[in-house]
Design a protein that fits this description.
With 306 residues, this protein is mostly helical. The chain has 13 helices and no strands.
Length: 306
Amino acid sequence: MNPRIKLITILLIMGASISLNFLTLYQAYPETQKIDAGCCTPKGTLLAKDFSAFYFGAWNLVHNSSQIYVRGASVNASFLGIKPHPESFKYLPSFLIFILPTLFLNYQTALNAFDAIQFAMLFLIAFLIYSLLEGKNIAIIGIVSVIALLLPFSTVSSWRVSEAYFWQWAEGQDKVLDLALILIAFYFGLKNKPLFSGIFFGLSFFDPRFSLVAIPLFLTLNRRKIRRAVISTSLSFIVTNVPILALPGVLSSFVAMFVSVGVTTPIFYYSYIPLLTIVALSAAKWREIVGTFSKDLERRVDNPKK
C-alpha cells in the first residue's frame, strides 16, 4: 500500500475511535455525579465513584498518612464532598503522586479534570501505537488502535459504544494513565533510551497486574540494554514507593489491605483497556519477543558463566 494512503487510513481509524470515545465520555458524564451501584456491584448498593479512593488517599497522604489504606466503608468523608463514603484505596502509594495536584480542586471538579486529562492522553496513545507498529501492516495497526482508543463492546441492552470506556470515565478510573505509562516505556525502549524507559515502566507498577503482562515486550524493546532498563525500573519503583511506605503506619496498613482485599480484586470492564492493548501489542510483536528470548537462551547455553 502507498505509504501516504496507509497513513491517512490509520489517522482516519484513530480519529474515528477517539471521536466515538468522546461520545462515550459525553454519555458517561452524568454518571460521574450519581451515587449508585456503579458498574459492578448489586443493584441498590450506594457507592461513591472509584476516584473517591484516589482523592481520599491523596488527602490522607498529606494529612494523616496512617489512614491511606483505611477501609472506605468505615469513613465519613462528606467534608470532602464524598458521599456516602469513599471507596478503599488498593494501589501502591506511588500512584498518589499523580493525584496530589487534584487536591487543589474540589472532589467533583477533580474527578472531571482527571477524566479530561486522560482523554487528552488518547492522542498520545495513538502516536505511541503508531510509532511502535509503524512497520506492521494496516490491519494490525488498526486493530490495536481500536482496542486501545475505544475497545468497542457492550453487555447491556441500551446502546453504548464501549462499556469499558464508559465505566472508565464514569468511575474516574486510571486505566488510560496506566496504559500511557507502559506505552511510553515501550517507546523509549524502541528508541534505545533504557533510562527513560525504566523510569516510566517503574511508575506503571502502581497497579502491577498490567505491568507484569508487559514485561516480555518491555525486555524485548530494551534488548540492547536490558540491564540498564531493569536497573532504571527498579530505582524508579523504589524511589516513588519507599519514602511513602516509610511514613508512620503506611507499610503495615498496605500489607493488611493487600492480603485481605488487594489480591482478590477482580478484572472489571475498564481493566481490559490496558490488558487487551498490551496483549494485542505483544501478539503483533511476537516474533521479536520469541527471537529475543531464544537468543538469550542460546547465549546462556553457549556461555554458561555469563
